[in-house]
Fold these 3 entries.
Entry 1:
Amino acid sequence: MSNAKLATMFRDVFGSLGKKPATELYPFVRTEAPAHLRGHVVWNSETCTGCGLCAKDCPSNALEMIVVDRKAKRFVMRYRLDQCTFCAQCAASCNQDSIALSHEQWELAALTRDGYHFIWGKPDDIAEALAPKSDNGDKPEA
Amino acid sequence: MSTEERIAEARARLAPFTDAVEEAAPDRLNAPLPVEQLLPAAAALIEGQWSYLTTITGTDLGPEAGEFEVLYHFSSGALVTTVRVRIPRDEPAVPSVCGLIPAASFYERELMEMFGIVVEGTPNPDRLFLPDDWPVGVYPLRKDFDPSEATVVIEKDPAND
Amino acid sequence: MNFFADVIQPILALLVFPGGLFVLALGLVYLWVNRKLVARLQNRIGPRWFQPVADVVRLFVKEEIIPEDANPALFVALPIVGLAGVLTASLYVPLFGMAAPFSYPGDLIVTVYLLSLLTLCIGLAGANSTGRFSLVGVTRTLTQMFSYEAPFLLALLSPAIIAQTWQISEIIAYADGRWLMFTHPISFVIAIIALMGKLEMPPFDAPEAETEIVAGAMTEYSGRGLALFKLGHGAELVIGVALVTALFMGGTANPLIWLAQTAVMLLVLSLVQVLMARLRIDQTVGLWWRYGSVLAIVQIVILIVWERIVA
Amino acid sequence: MINGNVKPAEKFVVPIGPQHPALKEPGHFELTIDGETVTAASARLGYAHRGIEKGAESRSYVQTLYMMERVCGICSHIHGTAFSLVVEKLAGVEAPPRAQAIRVLVAELERIHSHLLWVGVGAHEAGFDALFMYSWRDREVVMDILEALTGNRVNYSANVLGGVKCDVTPEAAETILKGVDFLEERARQYLEVVQSDAMFLRRTRGVGTMTREEALTLGVVGPTARASGVTQDLRKDAPYAAYPDFPINVITETAGDLEARFIVRVKETIESCRIIREVLANLPEGELTTRMPRRVKEGEAIVRLEAPRGEVFYYVQSDGTDTAKRVKVRTPTIANMASVLHLSVGHQLADVPMILAGIDPCFSCNDRSVRLTSAHGNDVWTWEKLRQHGIEAYR
């Protein structure tokens, strides 16, 4: 071992004594998430055309598009946060850019699943979509 | 050695066994062979460590076709030479290549448990991936695999407590 | 007969100060300092001050699981015996800058062997619990003990020879103000490194190498037994550091200086600990027998020759 | 199992895993030891088997892409890229040059991440925690870069079929370059450490030595093979994505021991830094995605990629629908696993975790059924019941 030396990391190690630890004090000190972070799904009902590609492509079946009335643009989106893998395929599949992933809502841990089930849409659309068997002829799409 | 030269070399090595070597892609050769010729062909391909066995892929052609196809992928540089062996579904067996390529043991174990193909003469026929209590005779990668057959039995083994 | 001096004082010394509770508490503090220093040297934040205390409390509260094949009495008794050994050793070592409460000719040898009692108990405990990892750990613990024990004793022998006594208090009286670490540098270095071996600190942590044998001999210990071993380990750290400090760093001092001395010592231990990769057990043994013992003997020979020439 | 009575005449078997501090992932090894020397070794895998190959037969290509990213937690990008490339090949579509360059960029960042992680794990197995802590501290830098670039720290999901999702803005390039400079400087420092630290060399030099002949016979891949002097790197042998435009230097060592494996990986980190700079300096302009048909025409395709751990092999058969007929994944770890069993024999027990770590094993890559354990004795779960349970639990 001709080139062997003892304590090759001395500079790093000794230097750290006077340095601030690299540990992030997460819950006490929050750093801002980068702008491209993939967090909670955000749906824009105004621009949505109800094509359902997002739900079709979702690898974890976290999204469900219920079309109440396509002509009147009455759509209901069901989102299961606990199934979502935050892959952003829905955003990539959407031709209208109606879906985005938030970089602000990412601290999503909770003790129960209660808050993880979202139904988005206008209140009467939701009521109609969730009513057992709509009678206006439109079948809810899976 | 360029890929063209490698293709010529692979054809030359496989010439004694088949002349049906086809170029499936610029960097890929297919060599359908009868099962008896698998071992000599593999030996010819790896001779002098010209290529190595990348993996063994089992495919189920379906109950209607009544056959499995086992693909042995040999890589040499950018070229992949696939030796394709078809075997009947009701009596699926291939000879082990472990005598030539010891590293094939894991691939053969996977083939055995996933497709139920008998690999004759493989050094270790134990299960590799599937749980110990996976039911015997249920092969998950077969096309007619019925998930309900795979009941999961959890036995309480006093020795393991 | 003075009742207080003859009865109460020894009992207090044994149970509260400087032995007993005080050593246990100080042991936990030193363990924390060690962990914190290691963490800071690795640019981490390290545990908060109460972490070792919390660990021990938690372990005491936990259910103790005794392996089926182990002898339950032995399983329970060994940690107690080991801890008792260490606490007894604390009575002969000057702690906190004060003279040791007990002293008699030859107490240095007794102290060193009382300290080894803990290692022996851990070894026996591991062998008793019959787990695979424990058994490998035991062979390693004992092998390591046989390798560092001789150099450690030889290293402590050099102050003893120069002071011409086996009694700690007398060696200290001789060492007072002389700082033997400068006149006996080889012994000092060997004593520190052997102490690390005794405490199973990296690079000598092969007996409890977590990536190989989980926790070595103590693998099967969970609740109270593990807590006692932990306490014993802390106390051993205090006593070992105090012993080396007293012998090589100018004898007894006032409590503040003693704290500073031991803190420096802990820093050195932590630095070495951080900078080294773990040695395999065969390498440990080789290191000690090939270099450690030989160097310690060389130091003693130098001392004796020096004595003869000076005398 | 652990508390068996051991009689002196019996073979003394030390089980490592499925839960063991040396393995951060589940795998089971049985080592027969004599004193401290290993005399036999066997392996049992599958504890993280998730049936991904079967799962791929019932999902659309788009959905499978994300499942493939989860073959491995550390090299998720390479699996995503491999699947995208193989499906693009089947469909006769080629992703635009900018997308290919970004794929390379993320792949090289991922390589730095993986190698730094491995240096830490390897050092930890040797009880050298300072190197472990520092290399993992520095790994945070590359993870932050990846998070800023792709949106997540581990499952980057940078790929879509036919391109990539994330773009590199000039400002982002600036940040990446700064981080890469820091990482290169650190990697050079680690190279110094793994080459010269006397205590660490005692644990790595001459340990787990694999000759070139053995390496070729055992069919090892990636840095493990390159440390034994096998010049094999698919980025050079069969360049994919944008590697034809950004040629790499293959790094090899001849010693074949653990030290060589450390050196190869750290040097590859430095090489990756160079490639990243080159990609950023010559990033082609243009679209990020191209149109990708949902149904892929009938056929089969093979793609081989160089993951941080070695060769990744993807074989996909399509039958003209939007679902694959057969997907075969061969990960580098399974190719290297045989070498661990071979090399362990004759070594000290203390060296086995290091030899195992030496190939950078990834068990989740390796195992690609569901098991539910119940504390109440025998319990039979049918798949239907299990599915029902899953549905209930996630309602």
Note: Chains B and A do not touch (no CB pair under 8 Å).
Entry 2:
Amino acid sequence: MLKYLKEEGPLGPRLPLIFCPGCGSGQVLNYTLHAVDKLIEEDEVRRENFLFISGIGCSGRITSHYLNFDSAWTIHGRALAVATGALLANPAFKIVVFTGDGDTGSIGGNHFIHACRRNIDVTILCLNNGLYGMTGGQHAPTTPLGAITTTTPYSNREEAFDLCKLAEIAGAPYVARWTTAHPQQVIKSIMKGLRKKGTALIEILSQCPVHEKMSPVTLLKGFRTKTIHVNKAKESTVGKTFIGEFCDLDKREWNESYQEIIDQFLRTNDKIDE
Amino acid sequence: MAKKIGAHDGENRTHDSYFLKPGRYYLQGNQACIEGALMAGCRVYAGYPITPAVETMEYASQRFPQVGGRFIQMEDEIASACALIGSSWGGVKALTATSGPGFSLMQETISIAVMSETPMVIIDIQRAGPGQGYITASQQDVMQARWGHHGGGPIIALAPSSVQEMFDLTIEAFNLSEQWRTPVLVMVEETVGHMREPLVIPPRDAIEVIERKKPQDLGIPPQDYLPWGHGVVAPMANWGDGYNVNFVALVHLEDGNIARYSPQANYHCVERLQNKIEGNVDEISRIETKFLEGCKHLIICYGAVSRTAMEAVIEAHEGNGLELGYIRLVTLWPFPEEKMRKIVGNVDTIFVPEMNLGMMRHPITEALRDRCKKVVSIPSFGILHSPEYILSRIQEETS
Amino acid sequence: MNKLWIDERYCKGCLICIDVCPTKALAASQEINSKGYILPVEKDMKRCKSCGLCEVMCPDFAIAIEEVEG
Amino acid sequence: MNLQGSSKRGYRVKKDERFEIRIAGFGGQGIVTIGRILGEALSIYEGKNSVNTQSYGPESRGGACRSEVVISDGEIHYPNVRKADLFIALSQVALDTYIADLREGGILLFDPDSVKNVPDRDKYRVYEVPTMEIAHDIGGVKFQNSVALGALCPLIDHMIKESSLRQAISRNVPPKTVETNMNAFERGMNYGEEDRGT
């Protein structure tokens, strides 16, 4: 997938990625490029149609200067607002938004639920590491109850969001959750999101070895043991996080619907202008 | 670690036992301002993580509950500033700290706080901008501090230049905000925010702490109470005091009535706010001066740059005896124009070193244009000036 | 027998590739490189089935398997 | 500010003596912790005035990272290093970047495993201590800072007692790791007891 990365820039190398050793962000970029590579091959999507937009935080850094694609590294929590604008300019864009649990669940919460409600054509990859990595391990709206972080030294007393339920209720037609330890499922979901017209939320549990103070390998093993596929979730599933596809509907995408308004001015026989 | 610093020493655990004992400590600027806030009676911190201000939050999350206060990490900076309005009107002194991008998000709320005369303190640990910029130091928000909030209402802004001043000026910020019923901004550079230096903590009872005047203390019963009346600085009834306070930020008359709008009411309302702060600039503002008497040239600076300026001034005097005067603005806003004009004689050149492209040089030039041949700005980008850089610019301009 | 290729400029020694390799064809090296990282090395490349999981799951695009016949 | 020197205006001004230390390497080596512990040890246990500043990129691992301590008996105005008296380099990039700021005859301490070449090393008093290797030996790179502090201790014992450093270390590391950090400190201090380098 190095062909999709700018190894060298005019002023020198752009790699290695800025992420800490074993960070999930690099893996999600890897999986995304695998999905995009397949779409270019199988669906003959032109490269110029892809647009990668990210907010601020470790996940935000994915678009900062590595990609051989159009991209935007925007403001903390506002990537979806920028994506909405891009779709108004060109509804054909295939947009992937890289965001984090703080970027989307905290400062970007309002833009997140409105994007889902409007059903704009965007594939949201929300890397959920349950904390703020870039600024040093503060708690996030997804931090589990009781967790100790640099801003909850005496244990976190706030319940965590379930971003997938939030997206579903807000109206997103495609909602799925995987982890960085499920590469093939993540790649398939990203392809599905990009093929489907409308808002696709793919929450990806992603490890932060530095602030969780555990090795990447241990954390990835944890993702396998502490999750259970929603379809298999019959026996005791207490304490396990559900993964899988939570909803997969067909809903008219915002631009599809708005296009009718635009097109009505082309139909001559209707008496719109009186 | 803070837990060790704040730990009480043996006697029964009361919230007061967690205050730092008088003595010499070694804290980071971002931590010293939190100790200052607690000493000033602040008991609510609402903030959002942003480099380079995040240490204030982490330290606040450890220290506030120890002394019976509350810390919360809000969903963003707008929410944090709004929480300060709620806490302040709820009767508790409130604090947040942020950096450039967050400071921009808070401007609407600061404007509401100016109009509603809400005491609160916002610390801006400035980083290089504009935009995402970088996480190193700058002084690029000092004009936004004055003109960033819509409507042009006045504001108080202080500029600490050491860890000790991060402690002292945060206390002063709370006192000014309570005394003049206004938001007070503490404009810091990342340099001072992240710097560690010895900090002397005085005995608590030796620290002057000002509380807002309350109608109850002045014998004004609810039925006679004018939320924005009774004097230049109106006594402030809080929610829960039984005064049925209707907080508004619309143009209002002293009784808070927003129904009888008129241009005169608007003018009166804004003019009163302006006079409250700008009209008392000499009492509110503070500057520090050295080597002024008979100086040929003059450096005017503020914040972290004053550390470099003082090093350069000493070297200048030690070396070739260049007569270089030194003024440090401890208060940026309200700008102490009259005070400056009283103490500055006629000089050849005024140098204004700033970690931006030249911002405070404008009010300085306006105030002292007729006292010098020229005002020379010495800019820097995302890094503290070195003494060599300032001295070389001075040699160029004056040789 | 396939050959392991590691780009020492990009690899940060997270060793995820060793863990996810289904046939345990890789192992951690004994020395620390100048950046203080421990890199993956070949353990038994006869086991390598060219599944590509190490390549897909590498956070730093620093690993590849060169398929060699025989 | 003690006004001792003299100038035409009769302001008798003399600058206060400064001793400047710079520590540099990459994120994750405990560079900032070394600076903080040194500053605290000097200011709290030795009663000196010391300013500790730091500068690093957004990366919490891997990026360039620098920490400085300026020490004086009098006031410290300019907080950063102007001409370092002592420079600890824990990576080649760090050494290349900052070697020019080390004054001639200054002390240079570096880790030979990561710093391979030192241009005109005879201009400085050079000490080589494999801090990364010792740290790995003891329990991991996060103990590298205590190894470095140990290696540093005999070089500045005219300013700071070993006990002050030990106290500052124990106060600034997670309680569970104090013992290992002390072990790392000793290993650094006693490294190559026989040949302390040129």
Note: Chain C touches chain D at residues 12, 32, 34-36 (CB under 8 Å).
Entry 3:
Amino acid sequence: MSEETFDVIIVGAGIAGCTAAYLLAQQGLQVVLIERGPYPGSKNLSGGVLYGRVLHEIIPNFWEEAPVERIITNQVISFLAAEGAFNIDFKNEAFCKPPYNAFTVLRAKFDRWLAEKAEAAGAMLVPGIKVDAVLRDSAGQVTGVAAGGEEMRARVVIAADGATSFLAQEAGLRERIPTAHVATGVKQVIALPRETIEERFHLTGNEGAAYTVVGYATRGVPGGGFLYTNRESLSVGLVMRLDDLVRTQSKPAEILEDFLAHPTIAPLVKGGRLLEYGAHLVPEGGLAMMPRLYTGGMLLVGDAAGLGVNNGFAIRGMDLAIGSAIAAAGAVAEAKERGDFSAQSLSGYQRRLDQSFVMADMRTYARAPHFMHNPRLFHAYPALLVDFMTRMYDQQGLPKQHLTPTLRQTLQDHHISLFDLLKDFLEGARAL
Amino acid sequence: MRRMSVPEKLAVNKYELDEGHPHIEVHEEVCRAQCPNLACLFVCPANVYSEQNGRIVADWAGCLECGTCKVACPTDALYWVFPRGGFGVIYREG
Amino acid sequence: MNIIVCVKFTPDAGDIQVNSDGSISLERAEWGIGSFDLQAVEAGARLAEATGGKVMALSAGPRQINHSKLKKDLLSRGPDELYLVVDDALQDAGTAATARVLAGAIGKLGPFDLVLCGEGSADLYFQQVGLQLGEMLGLPTLNAIRKIETAADGLRVERDLDDEIEVLAVPMPAVLAVTTDVHEPRLPTMKEILKAGKKPVTEWTLADLGLSGGLAKHSAVVSIRAPHQVQRKNIRIEGSPEEAAQALVGYLNKEGLI
Amino acid sequence: MAEQREIWVFSEKPALLAELIAGAKTLGGRRVAAWVVGARSSAAQALTQGADRAAWLGDTGGERLVEDYVPTLAQQVQAGAPAVLLIGSTRRGRAVAGRLAARLDNTVLTDVLEFQSEGGDLLIRHMIFGGGAVRVEKALAQPVIATVGSGVFAPLPPAAAAQGEMVEVPFVEPEWRARLIERKPRPPAAVNLAAARKVICAGRGLARQEDLAMINELARALGAEVACTRPLAEGLNWLPRERYIGISGATIKPDLYFGVGVSGQAQHIIGMNRSKVVVALNKDSSAPIFQQADYGVVGDLYAILPALVQAIKARP
């Protein structure tokens, strides 16, 4: 039994790993899915918004059986200043019709369901095992994995081991990750009764709201906050560029506490009880960060491949992970038919990825990381917006000015030149 | 919600402690010699690293396994791997 | 030696949720092998490996135990076969009822030389089932076993008692409840986990054991509540080291502690 | 009314037997019979500790184990039909109780902390989930067989002379015997934290192992045992494993727990939160231990401990 060579070993039962295992097992390949946590999902954490259409393509109407939390019909973009906020509140009932645009999910439950789907399709799940290294033959072809002193052989290894992917680095597919290419996400899940959530966020049934917060939330450190409604809890957290955290010597836990105490956030979490506090790295380097995605006998999928998009109004990772798993499964099945798992044969993975929405979006938002790193975005503009609105509504019994001069005055007070404003607007238009 | 300290938050989490098998080690002499910013002392969301009586100490039991320290550490002073299979933080929500 | 190891799958005590009224809820608790049973499984696996024989794992409980994760986890730690008695009537079963069901199941298993149990279950820790089971089977039955060796006339065991160690010769077949010192449980390896998926699992209901007439109830659970939290005074002592020391000595004196 | 049924008590440990007799006295004022193994004198002693009558089963010094008396005791229980049978919750006691119950198609209510009679019923209270919950059960079987640990009841002051008669009971040969080969002394645990009345617990706030000297000095001044948190025993090995308090270490219920430099992780709190009085000394005011403390001192232990020892010694 142990001398057997499997078709595929997948390392990491997250969204990408489980999806690839599901697809490949369905096509009759011998798939081993190895997860280091005691159960799939026990080591995974996301802000929690899954854009579900791509999963619907491979598991039709998955929401009828999957443990999803709420269907997002209400998106709020909030520009936070020290005492106030300027929100763009958008709601569209259209999002509440199948095949639904986006769901909130809790990874410890969702990944577990997805892994059970893969097992039902025939994948062999191996929980509680940490893979230490990939095995390579003299020609450098990856031939399997080593874990706890044991070796297991496979024709191809799919590394789905997350943003810090040690396997990608060890296999020479990428160097050390620079701090500019990742963001540290800290998150709390806060229990609130279902009725309170629906009342507080004006939701009916299993509708959900998603707040994306920019500005004071991260005390000027480039990044953003989020607040998503689950069925009976809120997912609240921050994602902050690691290079800026280091530069500003900021403590993520303290910024999160300040965020929760902010006058516009505190009322939303009032009366809540902390269920869990977690942290995770988020790939934020965009196209520039992506390592080489394949070599002889090995592919990178999901966060391990650096797939992630943060364009300010949405942070996407899970749908890209699923897209990469679909491309990887296609390439591996094709390689299996040819009986050739060389790098050349596996290049089909890159080709499929390029043709899919995954690389299309990575290219579209290639400039987002740079644009999102503009300090004015996280400090000056939110404060400007809130200040401008304050002046607009402030009736001090003195003669009012027209809006344009008020805006010009506010810009001056915030030392923002029209030129900067225009430059940033153009860069934003090209990046987002 | 009242303000909570990091130890209080970690106390809510579930851990399977791998007694006697720390997955983090700090080689202090390298830190003192090469590290420009001691980033680990502030970037870690779980405050694993602290300076106590002049020594950099890693209380690895509360680690959230995000890897921030591994990326932020500019030197190779930090031995940091995931805990052994089945051990460490266990997310029930995620 | 053919060895039967009795195991209880339990909800993880770490996942207890205390409701506002003090009652507790476990429906979101993760189920797993009782942490004190792992040593019994290890002891059984080692004895079977040393003497050439098989290990039959046996467990009884409500429907939560009939889950592939639990079955594979147990089968990846040494046992060759798994026998489950699954019946919701076993929810909150008392120690006598559990022992009766295990005795019934053992009756349907092949020949055996030894039955091993853990020190106590991870949730109740009443440390009773092994002893009651052994007596029901009419076999030599001992607890607190910290060492087992084979010998010409059966087994040589050491019992770790409160005041002394008893070294005993025990005839076989026998029923032994082992302490956590008997063996360090192994961590399942990648290959054992994969093999576990292919090992035989036999499932019975109480009816299959002729026990569907219901199990004797020797006690009725009246309530299960979180222990009442001692209300702490939370007095903060301020001042210089000397002032703080003086104040603390005053309080300790008032509490009759010095 | 039929002659009222007795309450029987059994333990191979004389000290625990005395506690059970006192406890039996509180259950409905019934006559209490003590069943004794070991030295014959223990039976006589039981009569001075409140037992109304005593029965000596036999000795356990030589070849016979305590558990060999299970068949004898079972025969007596069937004949004498007591209402309640309390057995000392030692490892041997648990073995006797379990096998006895199985022979009588009965069960055992284990490690009972409190009995309460309500109407005709007997309610018992004990812990489950490692102390995470308290379970109350109503006993239905006859007799009620329960194990009780030491410290639940306080023994009665011994009477000057023994009242009540003592009988000897015929030995019933058991169906099987384990042959005793050897008895080895059990190395006495260096410290019995569970029984300690006062505990000083050292935590990660200590910088060096040598600083334990200050902890020992404070412990001497207060007459307390020294314990520590997991990292000191597991990680740094400054103290042996049996001295660490926590979920996988010792659980204590002393009159005083004094945490020095202890932050108060959940796994530690579970092992000490049933202490009567909790004092905490830590330089971090937000350390979770302060929520569990009756008296909290925020400050530098290197300044406060010496001052405290001084203040204790200087007391009149």
Note: The two ends of chain C are 60 Å apart (CA to CA).
